[in-house]
Amino acid sequence: MYFGLSEEQEFFQDNVKKFLTDNASIDEIRKIANGEGQELQAEIYQGIINLGVNALLVPEKYGGLGLGLLHAVAISQALGNGVGPIPFSGSYVMAPLAINLGGSESQREKLLSKIVSNETRFGIGLSEFVGAREDAGLEIKNNKVSGRALFVMDAENSDKIILSTKAGILFFIDSKDKNLTINKLSTVDKTRTFHELVLDKVDCEVLEESTKDIEIVKKVIDAGRIILSADTLGASESMIEKAVAYSKERKQFNRTIGSFQAVKHMCAEMAADLEPCYSLVWQAAHSFEVDSIKESRLLACQAKSHLSEIGKSISKKATEVHGGMGFTDLLGLHYWFKRIGLNRQILGAPEIVREEAAEIQGFNQ
Amino acid sequence: MKSFISNLKNDILCKRTRNKMLSSYLSSEYFGFDSNPHASACIKCQVSGKRYKAFKKEVEAFCIKWKGVSFKNESKSALLDLAGPISEKSGKNISRSEWQTILIENGYFARSIPKEYGGYGGEPDIIKSRIIATEFSKHKVPNAMGGQGIDMLVPTLLEWGTEEQKQKYIKSTLHGETIWCQGYSEPNAGSDLANLQTKGELIDGKWVINGQKIWTSTAQFSQMMFCLIRTEPEASKHAGISFILIPMDTPGIEIRPLVDMTLKAGFNEVFFDDVTVPEENLVAKRGEGWSVANSVLGHERGSLANPNATMNRLNTLINLMKEETIDGRRLIDVPSYRERLLQVQGKVMAVQAHSLRLLSSKINPNQNVKLGGMIQKLVGTELRHELEGLAIDIMGELGTLYEDDPNVRDGGSWQFTYMYFLGLIIGGGTNQIQKNIISERGLGMPREPKVTVEV
Predict the structure, then answer these.
(1) What interhelical angle do B126-138 and B335-363 show, nearest 10?
(2) In CATH, which superfamily holds the domain spanning A7-116?
(3) Where are the alpha helices (DSSP H) in B111-177?
(4) Is B356's CB within 8 Å of A3's CB?
(5) Low-confidence ranges of chain A (pLDDT < 50)
(6) Domain spans of chain A, in order of start
(7) Is B446's CB within 8 Å of A271's CB?
């Protein structure tokens, strides 16, 4: 029995962590956040691709590594930890899963191998399936899509974008289609990108299996939620480490502030809140691969909503431990705060996700 | 990288399969082990799978046989109430200590304690322990008795006791014949436990003890007390304490019950007036009592809020919310109540998954769970208090009923446990002390500077 990450998963995780420590310092993150670091961002992206993250979830049959969601979780923790300014949850977790589960055999062959060779980069937008804001939504008529999609993930520099109808039919479009308008949304989180898509009779290709089973899009969302909870887990872990380190350096009243119980207790509370989260997220990823939909979806929903709550509380307390410095742009702590804040809302805020968890258990009749 | 991965792959599949076995015990359902593609090809997994499957059947048969067992002369102490579900009266009426003996003989209790000391003498096996716990809980068969003798004194004697002490006390404790209480806290030694003043002097080869202990649960039912006594008044605070065993029928001991907010006398004050016990009742050396006590406080902290009991309680709460109504509407259909239930469920699931991680670290020493272990008491007691409090909230006015009121739900257990866990938040090292431990020993933060006071 082993309830934790395997050696190989830790190996992957450490590589990504080390890569980000070496190549994405706070100054570099700031440049990228301010829109001045496109070359830098491209280098970081290439470095992560060289580690093999694009091939991770693609089955061996299509040239990928054929690994499971727990591997992706290990990497997502590392990306959250270093606020990695690269596409991952959309391009390399949700998109390959959507194609693998929703595509026909010929679509899988055609598309998945191109993810592995990095010839095709996918964005994905499922926000309207979870809960449409501003009455956004997409409709397919005569193989053309019209409508609007908000908070599309990893659409920047993408070649194709996977979307869904409200009925859960998955399809993809070309990012360069002349009838498609892409607007970058200015969110608080500048380490990742989110876009609004306006479609006016855009050509699309439906992922064929997805027309038969609404569970496919739901399963892709489960995976996305688990990955986002892992990102929050990693980001929260990093915020605690920073707060503890700062409290050991900063002096007031001739003492390091970390020797005051008021500060120590805040740090202890953060650690006590976060420790049980590791196993919850890992168990959710494990369950995604092996358990029934009922069991695994409950875990995915609870991981997403619980980590959203814990992350919110930790990002507040860790900032407070830093005092005035925590509030400044100088320290850059806010990149973690905002990343956690965005993870909380995307693919379903906690209340929405908990209602789904209640539904799975047959609570709300 | 690809070759690295394929090398490790079979090993990972083994781990994955075993992991799956474990998570299936968690959900109390045995999953189709044989149909797992990896398991059907891997000899290692097949062998262990068959072994555990057979063991599960054996435990299941035992549970069916003993379903509905009840106990003669059950003493109504809070500690025994919490030891496990006590079933309704049935034909199978035996004493607690007979039950202990049956459990030990079958290897369902004291599994890894040597036979010579009255245990079963088996190899420790965490999956088997988990199967036992799960089957007992599923069939509502009472667990073995817990309490301070079994949970704290037995591990202490195994680690620190002389051969004579082990022979003399462990067997009768495991079999429920000797009940123990713990004499640690004093009126002026609570969070600052090492400040304890109860005095022991060695006079003519006997310890003569004077002083007072407080918060002594089960003192009134106990035959023995394990006690921290200041025997070296000249030594420094922590080095002056010894660990001494005291028979409770020794002349000079007075027990006064202390009624707590649950209105039960769960605790006592114990007074010592020239209480005299033999010299050989000392465990370890003179002045080593602080180290002895600390090695066992960890056991207590781990056992105060069992995650499986918390999960059972959550399931009871869910059923309650399906049965109870307001204006004819089921409570679980009230969105604000349901939202709170789901919030608590997330926390309970996290804590339960965490307990599996801690369990797994016991057989995988490379897993670092130092911090993970330290947070258990703090997180577990706070969560249980919150859960019990939620049940009271959803019942509203009905939630305030207590004791023998004819309308009380679940025997008043929600109010009782709500208050009881507030006691546990304070007891066993207050949760504020826990936060000091987590921050200082877990996160490496500096200790509070010592304030020097002139006396």
Answers:
(1) 150
(2) Acyl-CoA dehydrogenase/oxidase, N-terminal domain (1.10.540.10)
(3) 126-138, 148, 154-160, 163-174
(4) yes
(5) none
(6) 7-116, 122-211, 215-360
(7) no
**Cross-chain Cβ contact A306/B443 below 8 Å:** no
Above pLDDT 90, what percent of chain B?
64
Q: Are A240 and A267 in contact (CB under 8 A)?
A: yes
Write down the mean pLDDT value for chain B: 86
Determine the Cα–Cα distance for residues B367 and B361; give it in Å rounded to an integer.
5
pLDDT digits (tens, 9 = 90+) for A177-230: 999 999 999 999 999 999 999 999 999 999 999 999 999 999 999 999 999 999
Collect all residues with Cβ–Cβ distance below 8 Å to A119 and sequence separation of at least 6: A159
Examine the pLDDT at B139 and tell me if it is beyond 70. yes
The structural domains of chain B, with segments of one domain joined by +, span 2-66, 154-297, 304-442
The answer to whether the Cβ–Cβ distance between B357 and A279 falls below 8 Å is yes
Report the gap between the CA of B330 and the closest CA in chain A (Å). Answer: 10
Q: Which fold has domain A122-211?
A: Butyryl-CoA Dehydrogenase, subunit A; domain 2 (2.40.110)
Inspect the interface and report whether the beta carbons of A268 and B442 lie closer than 8 Å: yes
Chain B residues within 8 A of A286 when measuring between CB atoms: 16, 19-20, 23
Closest alpha carbon within chain B to A275 = B372
Domains B154-297 and B304-442 share a fold: no
Q: What is the 3-state secondary structure (H, E, C) of B338-368?
A: HHHHHHHHHHHHHHHHHHHHHHHHHHCCCCC
Question: The whole model's pTM is what?
Answer: 0.88
On chain B, the residues whose CB falls within 8 A of the CB of A3 are 19, 22, 353, 356-357, 359-360
**Superfamily of the domain at B304-442:** Butyryl-CoA Dehydrogenase, subunit A, domain 3 (1.20.140.10)
How many Å apart are CA A99 and CA A110, to the nearest integer?
A: 10
Of A2, A67, A365, the CB nearest to B19: A2
Type of residue numbered B55: F
Max intra-chain CA distance, chain A = 74
Look at B78 and B66; give whichever has higher pLDDT: B66
Subunit contact B436:A8, Cβ cutoff 8 A? no
Number of A to B CB contacts under 8 A, please give it. 180
Q: How far B332 CA lies from chain A's nearest CA (Å)?
A: 6
> Does residue B32 have a pLDDT over 70?
no
ipTM (interface pTM): 0.95
**A215-360: CATH, from 2.60.120.620, 1.25.40.10, 3.40.50.720, 1.20.140.10:** 1.20.140.10
Superfamily of B154-297 according to CATH: Butyryl-CoA Dehydrogenase, subunit A, domain 2 (2.40.110.10)
Q: For testing the chain A interface, which of B349, B362, B369, B371 should be mutated: the one with the most A CBs within 10 Å?
A: B349
Position B11 scores a pLDDT of: 53
The alpha carbon of residue B190 is apart from the nearest alpha carbon of chain A, in Å, by 18
Q: Is there a contact between B277 and B246 (Cβ–Cβ < 8 Å)?
A: yes
